[in-house]
Structures are given as structure tokens and as C-alpha cells.
From TrEMBL:
It comes from Ceutorhynchus assimilis. It is an enzyme of class 2 (transferase). This is Serine palmitoyltransferase 1. GO terms for cellular component: endoplasmic reticulum; membrane. Residues 51-331 form the Aminotransferase class I/classII large domain. Pfam families: Aminotran_1_2. Pathway: Sphingolipid metabolism; Lipid metabolism; sphingolipid metabolism.
Amino acid sequence: MPSKKIEKIDENVLAQRLATFNPEPLVKLANTAKDKDEIEISAIIEDENTIDLAKTNFLNVLNNEDIKKVCEGTIRKYGVGTCGPRAFYGTTDVHLELEERIAQFLGMQESIVYSYGFCAISSSIAAYCKKSDVVFTDTNCNGAIEQGLLMAKCKVVHFDHQNPESFKRAVENIVQNEKESKRRARKFLVVEGVSWKTGKILPLEEFLKVAEDNKIRVFLEESYSFGVLGDKGQGLMEHFNIDPWRLDMIIATLETAIGSIGGFCAGSHMTIEHQRLSGSGYIFSASLPTFLVQAGIDSLNLIDSTKPHHNLRKLSLNFHDMLTDLGYQVQSDPLCPFKVFNRKNCQNKKIHEYCKARGLHFIWRDDDDCFVINLNVDLLNNERKYKKIEEVLREAIDSVSN
């Protein structure tokens, strides 16, 4: 057994070595450090002179005091985090309740809840699609779908989100190639109900017909239609009056209309059970904190009881008309809860800067030269805010024109 004297000497040597240890970085980065004053504050605090339309809060759930109180009580009972993945001390009765609630809400057999919306989409795709499979997806699909397809290493075939004929041609080309090579592959359609890029609503019935004629499994990503479209807020299948059994899986985040964190997949018992063993984001990630799970349950109860999405629909239509009347070119669907628009032949960056200086905050996509405004149903009953938005957007055009 070493003496205390030897231990003390070893500790001194160790301290000296640590003091002189200066390893090379794994990746050399350019010195882009900024002073504190140069860093723009990203948080937007709303007041009488500031309106935040960059935040995603379609049904104003984030400002619901009743849900906040319920979440506070949940924290006092369960704590903040579960400290483990779902299969390893990370599942509470509240998690199971939310999964049952989502399945019942959508008319599906079962659902599974992930701790992060991005992982819910990417992991569910990678759990089913393999290297030998063919996946059809929109040319401008979101990053989570792209990541899932990258993880799956499958053959990806693109089509136009709004064009069923584009999808049909892509399928016919693959089928013809299979006949020539005499090799058949499993086929999947992974598509967004509302495109994050354009805000356009997918003509689902036409796509389903092509998929069913060619025995293609359908995964519908409903992050921007779940809780928004349809009389009950069930999403695109209700909007087009389509039976749930025609969809193999519905995937969505809880970070848009629901106002929580995380995501879910809903489908048959077999479809969901497979993910409990193969969904990497489910198996390896710490589970969703219980108070956020409870927020999801209460948000769904709110949609059922007060139907705020009906007022959101009115707001979406009114806002679309307002933008058009002001002279903006609106790309998104009139029912879309976020508006993608710009002003043709105009310096859109200056319009964005003018609005920001006047306290109206929204997103400007530099690459696409367009704006994105995320609506909040509270605007429908707040005439002062609504008029200020209209006034600032009108003045912004005038300021650039002069």
C-alpha cells in the first residue's frame, strides 16, 4: 500500500502536468469571438411596443395560465426530469396517458412520444426505411426528414410537393427500372402535410391514390397541420375527410400548435411497437420531462373543449387577405398558420429591418428572400396589435419605395 508521502508527490506531479497540458484542438476554427456588446440579444420581450411573430405559438398555449399552473403542480409531484430513457426508469403514468390521448385524438390504434420533435421524425423514418428501400419525398422536405433518410441510407426519389403527377412519374420510373432489373424494393412515401418551405397544403387524396395503386407505405408528417386543420384539429386527414387506416403512420412535433416540446408517431400497434425497439431517439434519449408531457395533454384537452383552431382559421384567412391587399405576394395557403410572403422587385431585407425597428419581429429567409410570420390566435381578439401589424407592414413598403 503506497505511503501518504508518495501520494502527495504524485498529486503534485499530476497538478504540474495538468497545468502545462495544452492539447491541439480536434478542429481548428477561425477566431470569430465577439464582444458582449456585439452579440444581438435573441430573446424578444413583448410589450405595448413590441410584437413577436417569429415565435411558434399558434394557439397561444404558451400564455395559458391554467396550463402553467398544472405544469407547476406536475413538477412538484414528479420533478423536472425523469433521469432516464423511456425503457429505463423514464416512463411515468403521464407519458402513457399522453400516448393514449394522442391515439384516441387521431383515431389511431397507438402512439409513441419522443423527447424531441426532430428525433421523432428522423428516428421513426430510420426505424423502418433501410438501405434496400426506395423513399419518395418532397424536393424541399424539412431537415428532420432529410436526416432520417440519411440515417436510413435508402434510395431517395424527389418530387414536387404540390404536384401529384410529379409523384406519379417518379413512381412509374422506379417501377419500370424494377421490371428491367427484376429486383423489387419496398417503397415509402414520406411527405409533409403542410410544407415548411412554402406553407402549401398537400393534396393528400391524389397522392394516396398513387401510393395505394403501387403498394407504397405512407408516412405523413403533420407538424404544421396537427391541432390546426380539420373541425376537431386532427390534421390533414380530417381536413380532406380521409380514413385513418389509409395512412401507415402520422408523425408530428408537439412544438407548434401544442405548445410543448417533443414529438410523436401514431399508427397501428405493430407499427408503434417496432419503434420501441428500433427508434434510436426513443431508446437512447432521456424521456420527455413529465411537466411537458402534462402540457401536451392539457393542450389537447383545450383543443377539444374550446376549439381555438377555429379562430386560428379565421385569423389565417383574414391575415392572408390583409397581406395581399397591402401588395405582398403570399406563397402560403390561406389556411396555413404561418405566412410565407415577400414583395416582388423590392429590397425585402430593408422591409424586414424597418419592421424590426418599429417593434414588429418576424423571420426573414435570406436564401429565399422571403418573410415568415407565425400567427397567434390571440391576434384575432387584439385589435390594437392587429392594426399595428398592418400599419407597420404598409409603412415598410412605403419606406422602401421612397
